[in-house]
Write a structure and sequence with these properties.
CATH class of one domain: Mainly Alpha
Oligomer: single chain
Low-confidence stretches: 351-360
Largest sheet: 5 strands, antiparallel
CATH topology of one domain: Monooxygenase
Number of strands: 33
Number of helices: 7
Helix content: 10-25%
Shape: globular
CATH architecture of one domain: Up-down Bundle
Distance between the termini: 40 Å
Length: 500
């Protein structure tokens, strides 16, 4: 019996002794194998067996690719196979720093916002009669490069007539669940605000979904997006409202308390917990108020050391039921979000001989699952930590003991003085954004997640990207999606696309 005439059951049984890459090659042996080895259950089993982390956006792209292929090959249903191949390819490209570069020029008349899936660009134009118009461009980040869904489509929206005298500007775009919320505000103390939600669902013609108007004292109103909900902070009435981003239905109201003055530092949330840094009213000491949004319960989180009134939490982050707070003058605390118990403390204040205090430093606090990265000025201090998964195990594991500033200098050639600006992480890599003080350029170092247990620094998979940031004094905003690295600067957005 010829190989290509083997029964389907035998061919599928053979795949149990092969890995995914080998099954892909086997499917290309002949047409019979090609169609038999499209089996959805087979590829789902292979993905689970190899512990492949499935990204929803990559799977969506695989569905689109499978639908296009099905138009040519009617009986070919290979969604799971394409998903496996794309996940494998993107992971390999991230690890080997193989990417396609594109850039998008931005004018001072436009704003951008994204949720990792849709990139929304709103451009403002002024007519001869001084009337302002807005147009929208939407890119689908799941595809190759800047895949334009629509380009410069006029938006049928107008600000309230009485607000035109305040010359409200578009200050931010919040994007989630195929919805873009345009946030307009003025510059004075008592100027109003408007939020207008635009439907990004394909075929919905970018119609207005809802509108919220704040008539006065706009500087006391803050709007943020955490998870898929809009958080509206009313500092005059000491309350926080959470709203569904598509319908603007009110989901909950959190009442702020007078024991703390809010906010003092950056607010953080993950859709379940909300962390607000502030100062206690009685003694001006720093603290963090964490809310369980669904239960509407709160706790105050305090540092374990006595603090003078001039210290505050510059950054807070929430992830996996833990709250992290970066105290200025460099000390990091972690608490359990429900019990409020302190899990650990990291002192980041140690100096070293010859340290130049005039060199620029940057403040960042990055958390991904149970990985943690934060600022330090000690070249021997760890950059990335792995946090124990439970409150009973509040441990810190050195992800790679050699991963410190001194190691970064060696990775950059050994001669460059560097300052870490930010750290981004996903399931495949760690991206460290740095300022090279020798070349005065911003650079990104990619470190493979699967090589973090390497015994020596030289065996760690790493590569460097020169970020297109000439002439900039501050780093661009790094945005890491499942398939791309974006570097957003005031005049352009650079894309490093690993979906090749």
């Amino acid at each position: 019996m010829c190989l290509h005439n083997l029964p389907e059951e035998i061919i599928l049984h053979i795949t149990k002794y092969l890995n995914g890459r080998e099954v892909v090659k086997l499917s290309h042996v002949c047409q019979n194998f090609f169609y038999i080895l499209q089996n959805e259950h087979l590829w789902s089993t292979i993905s689970d067996k190899e512990n492949q982390v499935k990204e929803a956006d990559i799977f969506s792209y695989a569905k689109i690719h499978a639908a296009t292929t099905k138009q040519k090959l009617v009986n070919y249903h290979a969604r799971e196979k394409f998903s496996y191949i794309f996940h494998l390819s993107i992971a390999s490209n991230l690890k080997n720093c193989s990417y396609a570069y594109q850039n998008l020029i931005l004018s001072d008349k436009c704003k951008v916002g994204n949720d990792g899936r849709n990139l929304v660009q709103i451009t403002t134009t002024i007519t001869n009669t001084k009337k302002r118009n807005w147009s929208i461009t939407v890119y689908d980040l799941r595809h190759h490069g800047f895949h334009a869904v629509t380009v410069n489509r006029p938006l049928n929206i107008d600000l309230r007539e009485e607000h035109e005298i305040f010359n409200l500007d578009l200050c931010a775009i919040l994007v989630a669940r195929y919805t873009a919320v345009l946030c307009f505000k003025g510059t004075g103390d008592d100027t109003p605000q408007e939020m207008i939600a635009i439907d990004l669902t394909p075929g919905c013609d970018y119609q207005e979904l809802w509108r919220d108007v704040i008539h006065d004292w706009g500087q006391f109103q803050l709007s943020r997006l955490f998870g898929r909900e809009v958080y509206k902070f009313d500092l005059l009435n000491n309350s926080i409202e959470t709203h569904d981003i598509r319908t603007y239905d009110k989901l909950s109201t959190l009442q702020l308390v007078e024991e703390m003055r809010y906010p003092h530092g950056e607010i953080s949330g993950d859709g379940r917990h909300l962390a607000i840094p502030g100062k206690m009213s009685n003694d001006n000491s720093p603290a963090v108020c964490v809310w369980n949004v669904r239960k509407r319960s709160r706790k105050f989180l305090y540092p374990t050391i006595a603090c003078c009134p001039f210290r505050w939490f510059e950054k807070v982050a929430v992830s996996k039921g833990k709250v992290y707070g970066l105290l200025n003058r460099r000390c990091l605390f972690a608490w359990d979000a429900e019990s409020g118990n302190v899990l650990f403390k990291i002192d980041l204040t140690e100096s070293y001989p010859g340290q130049n205090q005039e060199q620029p430093t940057f403040t960042y606090l990055s958390v991904f699952n149970n990985y943690l990265a934060t600022i330090n000025t000690n070249p021997s201090c760890q950059i990335v930590y792995q946090v124990g998964a439970t409150e009973e195990e509040p441990s810190l594991k050195l992800v790679l003991p050699q991963l410190n500033i001194n190691w970064l200098k060696d990775a950059m050639g050994g001669k460059a003085e560097v300052r870490v600006c930010d750290v981004k992480m996903n399931d495949h890599c760690i991206i460290i954004q740095m300022l090279n003080l020798t070349t005065h350029r911003f650079e990104a170092l990619l470190i493979r997640m699967d090589r973090l247990d390497a015994s020596t620094v030289n065996s760690v998979g790493k590569c460097c990207i020169i970020l297109n940031s000439a002439g900039l004094q501050i780093p661009g905003q790094l945005i890491l999606t499942p398939t791309k690295l974006l570097n957003l600067t005031p005049n352009q957005m650079c894309m490093y696309d690993f979906l090749m």
